[in-house]
Amino acid sequence: MTASDKPPPDESRRAFLKGTVIGASAVAAGASLVDAAQAQMPAMDHAHQSGTGESGVKIGAFLSLADSAVVDALSERIMPGAPGKAGAREAGVINYIDLALAGAYADLQEFYRRGCAAVDQHCRASHGKSFAELAPTEQDAIITAMIDGKVPTFTWPTSQAFFATVRTHTMEGMFADPVYGGNRDFAGWRLVGFPGAQPLFTEADMASRKAFTRGPILGLQAQGRRT
Question: Among residues 50, 149, 43, 62, which one has the least CA distance to residue 112?
Fold first, then answer.
């Protein structure tokens, strides 16, 4: 989706993301990276439980309560849940983004701070509420304005750049291996029928057009324990 596109309806957005899941879910890493990610995740879960509600207080590895609410709501509109279909919230995308901003994406911390502040500033000025408090249709209208560059509270980053970045990270959190903090319980992989990092696919498996059902979904953590 380019910056000039309107956000598609939920089902169209879901279909588009399914078409791009191959690249996102093919993430691979060495054992040292897996160990590092495993070490971070328990601390993140504990921190979320101890948030205080003050806008500047961290509730996880990096994000404040206010910023977390913006990112969580944005990601859920990008990849909305539906009955029987996991969305960004159920898949723990906010956990993935928070861990990434404390680690591999640390250079984007100020980018996220300023972007989240600009979103909420605009929403409070135009609706008297934060972005997370708006109805889904109102949130979609704000997203449309962001994509069109019509949210005046943005300077740097631009609204288009901020939305595109959150969208990319939402896709990563939905479909990357759960070892990175998202795709909780393989929610994203189950959504598109991806079997994970299986130790072996037979020729028949590779030739089949049917969903893989021979074994359980496996991620990097399971593979690490096997080796």
Answer: 62
pLDDT tens column, 12-24: 444 444 444 433 4
**147 confidence band (pLDDT: 50, 70, 90):** very high
What residue spans define the domains of the chain? 10-226
Whether residue 219 contacts residue 177, with contact meaning beta carbons closer than 8 Å, is answered with yes
Q: What is the identity of the amino acid at 32?
A: S
Q: How far is CA 135 from CA 72, 74, 207, in A?
A: 14, 12, 45
Token pair 């500033």 is found at 121
Q: Which two tokens stand for residue 63?
A: 């994000």
> Higher pLDDT residue, 37 or 95?
95
Which residues make beta-bridge pairs with 58? 64
In single-letter form, the type of residue at position 31 comes to A
Show the CA angle centred on residue 96, arms to residues 17 and 218, nearest 5°: 75
Distances (CA, A) of 109 to 60, 78, 155, 204: 13, 21, 16, 46
Closest listed residue to residue 173, CA positions, set 73, 92, 60, 64: 92
